[in-house]
Design a protein that fits this description.
There is one protein chain. This protein has ten helices and 20 strands. It is α+β, with helices and mostly antiparallel strands. The strands form four sheets. Strands 2, 4, 5, 6, 7, 10, 12 and 13 form an eight-stranded antiparallel β-sheet that branches. Strands 1, 3, 8, 9 and 15 form a five-stranded antiparallel β-sheet that branches. Helix 4 packs across helix 9. It is globular.
Amino acid sequence: MRLALALLLAMSATLPAAAQNAATAWATSWAASVQGPYPAGNPSAQPDQRFAFPEPARGARDQTLRLVLRPSLWGREMRLRFSNALGTQPLVLDGVHVGLQLGGAALVPGSNQPVRFGGRAAITIPPGESAWSDAVALPFVPEAEAGQMQGRKLAVSLHVAGESGPMTWHAKALQTSYATPPGAGSLGHDEGEAGFPFSTTSWFFLDAIDMRATAGTPVVLCFGDSITDGTASTLNGDDRWPDVLARRLFARHGNRVAVVNAGIGGNQVAGPAEYAPQKPAPGGPSASQRLERDVLSLSGITTVIWLEGINDFSRNGNASVETVQAAMREAVGRMRAGLPGLRVIGATLTSALGNEGQAHGFREQDEKRRALNAFIREGGLFDGVIDFDAATLDPSTGGLRAEMVPDSTIGGPGDRLHPNRAGYLAMGHAIDLSAILPGLR
């Protein structure tokens, strides 16, 4: 493995003249919309967390988290954003490293790189705020062929010094990450896995990664709720519909486009009216409330695909169609004002009819869903429309197609609300690539 890494470094030693002259900029390569504080949220396939985090109010305590994630765009230089957005006390991080995952919590030997903040090894992030790291070199990424890294995963290790207090997190990672026991200290430098016995299917504190890329690199942001977040997709399988879209774009354009996921399970367009650490909701802050953090402040966003609204019509939301339409108009206006030239694509809502839960699946909800879909298709608000409803609907029942119902995450019968892998695959292939990135050839 060390020989392979050495060969990668040798291959990337010479910088082509064209690359020296190319203008570059930061482009978002990965994101995880934050919510919280832990445990407020809707994780999937979550292991028992009481050994890693025995007291949620105290949070992480002198321990190291190793968060595993898959960039959608690769480069030889990156930076990371850490968030204390839903924390109630200062968050102190040190011993931060980023390396290439080998398997489990183990890293490819020699790949682990230290992360600095203004040249320092530690940073204190006040409650409600976030912070970017310094640029971090990734010498294991081939200079001229960064796309060879597509599909590989990074492991970001961070040590929480002292107690974090209530933890800002993204509940539904659908990706296994790792943690040391409380009190274990700073182990981010250790490329082995022995010190990381506990697992989680959530991400904590980390909410964005940028890669240095050619200026103007398109970044497609998928904005929405659990059906974007990936409920009922395969744990560690990377088969949410945004993942399918990313692979299609890579097959056509190579390492020239990023696709990032800004879904939160349970999220709503218009509700809740209030969201705070002292008053959280499982679905996170409303789409309108999280626009600045999850869209406008990210690097290089050129297209937003927005799929959302089914939770507004649930018995938890009880919103009218007119309320959701108004919130959509307001949010799209803010996105376009904040990111001139942005393309905003509306996606039709998939059916929840027949869901056996108490909040979804009733006839009145489906009537509202169909009315909102008509607005998305014909209301003139969006720059284009993706018809996910048509891609997944069984016309004979009005619900999801039968093969799209069984759960892919943990097995079982499925809930008739969230499409499974087959459904997400159909959704990802229902997207007209030229419509979302019309200028890219």
